[in-house]
From TrEMBL:
Keyword annotations from UniProtKB, A to Z: ATP-binding, Nucleotide-binding, Repeat, Transport
Name under which the protein is recorded: Sugar ABC transporter ATP-binding protein
Domain ABC transporter: 12-249, 263-506
Record has Transport as a keyword: yes
PROSITE patterns in the record: ABC_TRANSPORTER_1, ABC_TRANSPORTER_2
Molecular functions per Gene Ontology: ATP binding
InterPro entries: AAA+_ATPase, ABC_carbohydrate_import_ATPase, ABC_transporter-like_ATP-bd, ABC_transporter-like_CS, P-loop_NTPase
Superkingdom per UniProt: Bacteria
Region (Disordered) residue spans: 388-407
Aminoacyl-tRNA synthetase recorded as keyword: no
Cross-referenced PANTHER family: CARBOHYDRATE TRANSPORT ATP-BINDING PROTEIN MG119-RELATED, GALACTOFURANOSE TRANSPORTER ATP-BINDING PROTEIN YTFR
Length: 507
């Protein structure tokens, strides 16, 4: 930064921002200062207030108190349009695209009409959208495709194209890397680099601390709705310090020990020649009680498809599955659940959660028979059981009567997992179990998964985070383009080796 910019007021300051929801003080006097051209990282545990703060900044929430300045002048961000007019663009944690509209329509949604109709319409919108997508490194996305047909990663690119279609001075990204593959994360970092080189400021939220080191300039840490550290240097501040600021304690980011003796009993899950033409080649797998098997591979390598096919949500074109020595009818979720399979799916919002229902109901929904007697539901027992499962994962707030919709992203993920803890299955299929979960809670989650395995559960784990697969699983299968290209004990692999396998197909 040159001497001139040092004298200029910051691009953005937020001071003493407060925001309450019924029963929750989400922001309790937060300060944030952002300079033009910097990457300012916002860190904090699940529920700390990060998304709430950036929604205030985006004009989507009105704060109860506090002052916001832009180029040194006080402003009110009364609506998303008002924020956008200043040049503040936001990529939300839960993307807010309209699935039934095309890419180009989404990009130009919300652009104000002029006397000549819309600023950009029809073919002009398509041409301009195509140019934005090229700039974002994704010329292959067709501006006319429906957004609902795109992968999560491509949807995020569309969300960024929409942000760039305005004259953006500050780009806010709420956990943009959570749904991305390693090479897509590289592309994201390149985009962030291009933006900051043009003087655009970026506010970046992530639970992956190594990302903060790579692209961050300064860090603000939130805890329980307060900023506990403002503007720390991103590169020099030790990880230990950041984690203890976030959590108020020293968390060792370690994986639980593996049991000394390997599993001895017969496999509880046997998969033979399971195939879905066009998605994955014949897939074989045995898992014994007590074993955690990891599936590594890129998005689109067939990982999630295999999990969903075992679970009966997709019908295989060939192959057999046995659970506990008994043949399982394929293509039936009901049969799979009855046989003792549980799936914590990747997209919690669309596939798993009843957003308007309470945490209790979301957690107990798969175990209702345990709480009903002759048509009578024992709500007290239902609530107590749900509370036990959510406490085990430190789900916040510690009040299972609140609707799931009001939980922070990471706490919604915990609600999905708590459901399967409560249900007590024989085989647990976990698809990206720690997506959006903070570092402190991760360690707890890993310990819970290992404990369940020690108690005799078999676990099949899919994760984009290679260290997680290597640290948690006993055995690892590496998938590439729908085919298993490597299988070994987790201790025989390192992160580099796995990345070479998933990206190049060889070590
Ligand atoms: N619409 C809402 N109604 C009620 N409470 C809410 C609402 N939105 C957020 N909260 C509460 O505000 C607090 C802060 O949530 P926020 O989403 O900002 O957390 P976060 O830091 O983004 O967490 P995560 O890392 O899990 O995404 C949480 O206690 C959450 O339950
Ligand atoms: Mg959030």
């Amino acid at each position: 930064m040159g001497p001139d910019t040092a004298l200029a007021p910051p691009l953005l300051t937020m001071s003493g921002i407060t925001k309450s929801f019924p029963g929750v003080r989400a922001l309790d006097g937060v300060d944030l200062e952002v300079q033009a051209g910097e990457v300012h990282c916002l860190l904090g545990q699940n529920g700390a207030g990060k998304s709430t703060l950036i929604k205030v900044l985006a004009g989507a929430h009105q704060p109860d108190g506090g002052v916001i300045t832009w180029h040194g002048e006080q402003v009110a961000l009364r609506s998303p349009i008002a924020a956008m007019r200043l040049g503040i663009a936001t990529i939300y944690q839960e993307l807010d695209l309209v699935e039934a509209l095309s890419v180009a329509e989404n990009v130009f949604l919300g652009h104000e009409p002029t006397s000549a109709g819309f600023v950009v319409r029809g073919s002009a919108a398509r041409t301009e959208t195509a140019a934005l997508l090229r700039r974002l490194g994704h010329p292959e996305i067709d501006p006319e495709r429906l957004v609902g047909d795109l992968s999560a990663a491509h949807q995020q690119i569309v969300s960024m194209a929409r942000a760039l279609s305005h004259d953006v001075r500050l780009m806010v990204m709420d956990e943009p890397s959570a749904a991305l593959d390693p090479d897509e994360v590289e592309n994201l970092f390149r985009i962030v680099g291009d933006l900051t080189a043009e003087g655009v400021a970026v506010v970046y939220i992530s639970h992956r601390l190594e990302e903060i080191r790579r692209i961050g300039d300064r860090v603000t840490v939130l805890k329980d709705g307060r900023a506990v550290a403002v503007g720390l240097p991103a590169e020099q501040t030790p990880t230990r310090d950041i984690i203890s600021l976030m959590t108020g304690r020293n968390v060792e980011y370690v994986f639980p020990d593996r049991p000394n003796s390997g599993p001895r009993t017969d496999p509880v899950l046997k998969v033979q020649g399971l195939t879905r033409a066009g998605e994955f080649a014949p897939f074989d797998l045995d898992i014994r009680p007590g074993e955690i098997v990891g599936l590594a591979g890129l998005v689109g390598s067939g990982r999630s498809e295999i999990l969903e096919t075992i679970y009966g949500a997709r019908k295989p074109t060939a192959g057999q599955i046995e659970v506990g020595g008994r043949s399982l009818r394929t293509g039936s979720v009901r049969a799979a659940v009855r046989a003792g399979l549980g799936l914590a799916p990747e997209e919690r919002k669309a596939q798993a959660l009843l957003m308007l229902e309470s945490v209790t109901r979301n957690v107990s929904v798969s175990s209702m028979s345990r709480f009903s007697y002759g048509g009578w539901l024992d709500r007290g027992r239902e609530r107590e059981a749900a509370r036990g499962a959510t406490r085990e994962l430190s789900l916040s707030p510690d009040d299972p009567s609140v609707p799931v919709r009001t939980l922070s992203g990471g706490n919604q993920q915990k609600a999905v997992l708590a459901r399967w803890l409560l249900r007590g299955c024989r085989v647990l299929l976990l698809d990206e179990p720690t997506r959006g979960v903070d570092v402190g809670a991760r360690a707890e989650l890993y310990a819970v998964i290992r404990r369940l395995a020690d108690e005799g559960l078999a676990v099949l784990l899919v994760s984009s985070e290679v260290p997680e697969v290597l640290g948690l699983a006993d055995r690892v299968l590496v998938l590439r383009e729908g085919r298993v290209i490597h299988e070994s004990p987790a201790t025989d692999l390192d992160e580099h080796g796995v990345l070479d396998l998933v990206l190049e197909g060889a070590r």
